[in-house]
Amino acid sequence: MINRSMFTVKRKARRYKKWLEKITIYPYPYEVSGRNYYLIDYVKLNQTIGGAIMSDQEEHHQDVKKAHRNLYLFYRLHEKILEGKVRASVKLEFFRIPLKRMDETPDPKWKAPYKVINRLLDLQLLYRKTYDDFWEHISEIKEKKLPLKDEELELAINTAAKLETIQYHVVCELANNMDVLKQWKQLMQEKKMWDEMKKEQQVFYTQLMQNEEFMMEEAKKAKSDNFDKAFKLNKEAMTIYMSKEQKSDYEVLRYP
User: What is the CA radius of gyration of the chain?
Assistant: First the structure.
């Protein structure tokens, strides 16, 4: 049903296409008053230079604005979440192997670095779960060929804000404990345990330490040390920013 709808929408979209432009129709429509509305981009030389909102049925003007708001916000957030793919794929063994090595060779000096690396592991697990949960839900929508609803928009807002919050807490954890990690690496080398780790694990921590100045600067952008408060603030700021962008985009739509 949705494929047939997209065919109809693409045929309508061609009427507003200009020379050398290509049409991109975002795959998931948004349902308003029983109608599916699609977000459309007109692209030239890999640059989006126009947009439209269309339905495979006759559009109701009073529904178009809501459809555009929800579609625009969802897809901009969708893109932002997708940017987290690399971070979500950071290997858990980067944290679990050093923790295992310290468990196997007890030493009072491990206490501080163990706490830091364990905290980084917890944050990575949370990041990965937040990222995966979003895509699992979207896959279900795709499989069942369902249109987007308010639930998906809220999920996108929460996911994007949470991933950003987690990332800043990772940066803060590193910035605040860089000396601890440097001392840990030195002790690992003294105990001949550093060379026991895989090369990619060594590179991971070495690069973190080399980026100390960057970490310090990024940590200043964190809105709060409290996770829940930071999440709330990030969610509010993200929604306000996206809403302003959406209003500007709506004003220059080619259709309706």
Answer: 23
Note whether 33 and 149 are within 8 A (CB).
no
Q: What angle do CA 38, 67, 19 make, to 5 degrees?
A: 45
- Report pLDDT digits (tens) over 238-248: 999 999 999 99
Tell me the pTM. 0.91
Which of 80, 55, 30 shows the shortest CA–CA distance to 255?
Answer: 55
Share of the chain above pLDDT 90, in %: 89
What residue has token string 């990030």? Answer: 234
> What is the distance between the alpha carbons of residues 153 and 210, in angstroms, rounded to a whole number?
38
CA–CA separation, 74 vs 39, rounded Å?
Answer: 10
Distance CA 114, CA 208 (A): 16
Give ∠ CA 23-25-29 in degrees, rounded to 5: 160
